[in-house]
Amino acid sequence: MEPTTQAIDETSGDPVWIDYAEFGERFVTHAVTERRIESAVAGIAGRGVRIGPFSVGPAGLAGFVAEGKMGRPSIVRHDPHVIFQLTVPISLTVKLLLGGRKMRLSTVVDIGLTLHARTADPLLIVIDIPPVQASDVRIALRARALEAEWEFLLDPIAGVVQREVANRVNALLAEPQARRGRIFDIEAILDGVDSAHRGRDDFDWIDYGEFGRRFFDRVVTAERVGGVLERMTGRPIEIGPLRTGPGRRATVTVRGAIRVPRVRARPEAADSEAAKDGPVSFDVTVPVGLDITVDVLKANRYRADVEIPLSLTARAADPLLVVIDVPPPDARDIRLEFKAHGMRAATLGVLAKIKKQIVGRVAGVVRDQLESGAERVIDVAARLDALG
Fold first, then answer.
1. Residues 6 or more apart from 43 whose CB is under 8 A from it?
2. CA-based torsion, 332, 337, 342, 345: positive or negative
3. Closest Cα partner for 75 from 48, 109, 29, 114?
4. Are 16 and 318 in contact (CB under 8 A)?
5. Which of 257, 350, 336, 256 has the alpha carbon at shortest distance from 299?
6. CA distances (Å), 297 to each of 250, 347, 363, in order?
7. DSSP letter at 116?
8. Cys-Cys with 166: which of 40, 81, 132, 149 at CB 3.0–4.6 Å?
9. How far apart are the first and last CA of the chain?
10. Could you give the CA distance from residue 36 to residue 247 in angstroms, rounded to a whole number?
11. What is d(CA 56, CA 103) in angstroms, rounded to the nearest whole number?
């Protein structure tokens, strides 16, 4: 996911937190649009329909054949739940034969269905279409002039057409490609890989709240979080020149950069029930490499390795954001080790006096990077919109 910076709260600038369950429902609501529903069922538009020949009437005295094609489905959304009304129009021409006489009827047919966007294991959104029943098929038979002797055939013809249209649509919706178009594997989409689940026809359903929780467990991983924090890598740190020591005769200059942060999931996350109910958290170490020059009569050079421990939490925020929430580092928790070349006691004393100052400056640079927001706020809605 590409992060985008966004004004989170116009008055305070602070995130408006929502829980994972609310995030899950908002995710599905935003992801499943009328356009995506239409795309998922577009394959049936223009498909031909042929019914018959069938015999109807007393002793099967009359016969008919119906031919036509399906039109473009229309979609109407019903909020607040992700429920859609789908109407599929079908144009049919019915040709009747009774006692050597022929009759042509124009037929208006449409199918009314209720579709649900459901969530399933492991992290799927499935457009669930119930099987079409004959009662879902509405039909009107029309003729310019219909003699009385033909009228008794209309009801049995309508019944056959309803049943056969329902069977035909069910067969089309059951085709492998049609099924694939109604299954969205969120994890695979974000990873840019093919899904192993799109050929399925049975699912373990989960609710939107569980979907939201699983989104953070499965998508907001240590690898992805590390990728976001890696954008800090190489950010320069410069301190000084500072004058210190007796008579302020020592000049200290510090140059360095942030190295690649290390991220790991909390080890108890997989085992603890409390952890499963709580937010997704990580332990982060931000290493910093520093070159320090202490000039007392001559230049004395040191290498310093700094490690900044952080506790990171992946939170959901309004309207549909993933926020990597990182409390500012505390200078008291930061570890700094010197490695000297040509060590001299006098310069070591100088470094000891300014160690706290160096640590404070390093912590400030890292704090500024974290507070900028650019590396830690992911606009999930924008990402979904970009997927098309």
1. 172, 175, 177, 178, 181
2. positive
3. 114
4. yes
5. 350
6. 8, 10, 30
7. E
8. 132
9. 15
10. 74
11. 14
Task: Kindly state the tokens that stand for 281.
Answer: 């958290």
- With pLDDT > 70 as the criterion, what percentage of the chain qualifies? 85
Peptide bond before residue 319 is cis, with ω within 30 degrees of 0: yes
Q: What is the pLDDT of residue 4?
A: 38
Distance CA 113, CA 136 (A): 7
Return the DSSP state at 170.
H
Backbone angles phi, psi at 74, to 5 degrees: -115, 145
C-alpha–C-alpha distance, residues 287 and 7, integer Å = 30
Task: Give the pLDDT of residue 289.
Answer: 92
- For residue 60, the 8-state DSSP code is G
Tokens of 75: 């979609």
Pairwise CA distance, residues 354 & 350, whole Å: 7
Pull the structure tokens for residue 169: 């649509």
Residues 154, 140, 158: CA angle, nearest 5 degrees: 40
Kind plus residue range of the DSSP H or E element containing 178: helix 176-180
Residue with tokens 């579709």: 115
Longest distance between any two alpha carbons in the chain, whole Å: 123
Residue 257 carries which DSSP code? E
Condensed to tens digits (0 to 9), the pLDDT of residues 248-304 reads 777 888 999 999 999 988 765 445 554 556 788 999 999 999 898 888 777 778 888
CA 308 – CA 60 distance, rounded (Å):
87
69-122 pLDDT, tens digit per residue, is 998 888 888 766 688 888 989 988 999 888 788 888 888 899 988 888 899 999
Q: Which two tokens stand for residue 170?
A: 């069910």
Q: How confident is the model at residue 1 (pLDDT cuts 50, 70, 90)?
A: very low
Nearest CA to 134 out of 91, 169, 173 is that of 169
Tokens at residue 290, please? 């520093």
Name the E strands within the chain: 17-18, 48-56, 62-70, 74-78, 83-98, 101-120, 124-128, 137-142, 183-185, 205-206, 236-244, 250-258, 262-265, 280-296, 298-317, 321-325, 335-340, 377-379
